[in-house]
Specification:
371 residues, D-amino Acid Aminotransferase, Chain A, domain 2, 2 domains, nine-stranded mixed β-sheet, binds pyridoxal-5'-phosphate, binds 2-OXO-4-methylpentanoic acid
């Protein structure tokens, strides 16, 4: 549990002496892509066993000094989160503010990841305050492109210099920010995915945690997907290599002709996406039958062929809601729908994005206004 002192850490501010020039920033903000540009500042908080979290600060964005023996560099004791800040649409005379979407869900998942990786938890309030500080110091970094947002990357790693294999006694928590446009470069109306023969996560492993190691394991399969001309990699379950789990960085949904939608159930090997949980709720409210269960690659192909399956889409903070148009594996490939975004994919996306940007009433308390 957090001590009151940790919850009320005061953030020291050290503004950047030479931030990015306004004209250079404007160029970036007009076409940010994803994950390539970073704002002027970052947040850092230290943890020392016996002392807890201390020295919260907002400092100029830049390289960090690490001991070469820092445990993270050897045993990958690292976790992260991904969430976005949105500029709210202006309403009447009211100026649009800035909001986070369900940041407490990210704070909770961060702590679940921390427990799995034997790392200290960060008080939820401190996680959210760190993110808030990061957004506010760099609030001039919101993209000007349609659909743009500020992607936030909170992360924690073991900084203790020690080569014995045990949980470290020192950590750093940081937040960096990146102006974000579209995650997928291709600009295609629907993405193409490659079903990998590799396994991402096994029962009892770290699949449900958002730790860097999971993504390291996905890089060879991802490179393989790219080299075959696909946009994302899909992983099947580790035991039977039959059941659809998730993509390298997104969850999946299937839309059927009977008005039902299905997403793989959370069995401990897939990441419990916050977009996934939001869409489950929104779809149920639209009157759809919502199911969380198993779905095999074979059944998916058969349903696409018979017309029972109407749409498939990927979802996540970075990808938002992205239609899947083609699925390929060693066994061959199949198409879904007409290759463009399906009706439900579009309407669920519009609803989610509308709530996130303050254009549709937030009846769930998901939107946390911070400015
Ligand atoms: N699955 C994986 C492996 C991811 O990396 C992500 C992205 O964070 C998701 C699913 C979707 O999660 P969320 O909707 O919380 O962004
Ligand atoms: C996200 O959507 O936040 C992700 O983490 C996906 C990917 C960029 C790792």
């Amino acid at each position: 549990m957090a001590t009151p002192a940790e919850n009320s850490l005061t953030f020291a501010h050290h503004p950047h002496p030479s931030p990015v020039a306004a004209d250079v920033r404007a160029q970036v903000l007009a076409n940010p892509g994803f994950g390539a540009a970073f704002t002027d500042h970052m947040v850092e908080i230290d943890y020392t066993e016996g002392r807890g979290w201390h020295d919260a600060r907002v400092i100029p964005y830049g390289p960090i000094a690490l001991d070469p023996a820092a445990a993270v560099l050897h045993y990958a004791q690292e976790i992260f989160e991904g969430l976005k800040a949105y500029r709210l649409s202006a309403k009447g005379s009211e100026e649009g503010g800035i909001a986070l979407f369900r940041p407490e869900a990210n704070a909770q998942r961060f702590n679940a990841s921390a427990r799995r990786l034997a790392m200290p938890e960060l008080p939820e309030d401190l996680f959210i305050e760190a993110v808030r500080q990061q957004v506010l110091i760099d609030k001039d970094w919101f993209p000007t492109v349609e659909g743009g947002s500020m992607y936030l990357r909170p992360f924690m790693f073991a900084s203790e210099a020690f080569l014995g294999v045990r949980p470290a006694k020192q950590y750093k928590f940081m937040v960096i920010a990146s102006p974000a446009g579209n995650y997928f470069k291709s600009g295609a109306p629907a993405v193409s995915i490659w079903v990998s023969d590799y396994t991402r996560a096994a029962p009892g492993g770290t699949g449900a945690a958002k730790c860097g190691g999971n993504y390291a394991a996905s890089l060879v399969p991802t490179a393989e997907a790219f080299s075959r001309g696909h946009d994302q990699v899909l992983f099947l379950d580790a035991a039977e290599h039959k059941w659809v789990e998730e993509l390298g960085g997104m969850n999946l949904f299937f839309v059927f002709d009977d008005g039902s939608i299905l997403t793989p159930e959370l069995t401990g090997t897939i990441l419990p996406g916050i977009t996934r949980s939001s869409l489950l709720k929104l779809a149920a409210e639209e009157g759809l039958t919502v199911r969380e269960g198993r779905y095999s690659l074979d059944q998916w192909q058969a349903d696409a062929a018979s017309g029972r399956l109407l749409e498939t889409f990927a979802c996540g903070t970075a990808a938002v809601v992205t239609p899947v148009g083609k699925v390929a594996s060693q066994a061959g490939e199949f198409a879904i729908g007409s290759g463009g975004p399906g009706q439900l994919t579009q309407s669920l996306r519009a609803k989610l994005v509308g709530i996130q940007r303050g254009e549709i009433a937030d009846t769930h308390g998901w939107v946390k206004r911070i400015a």
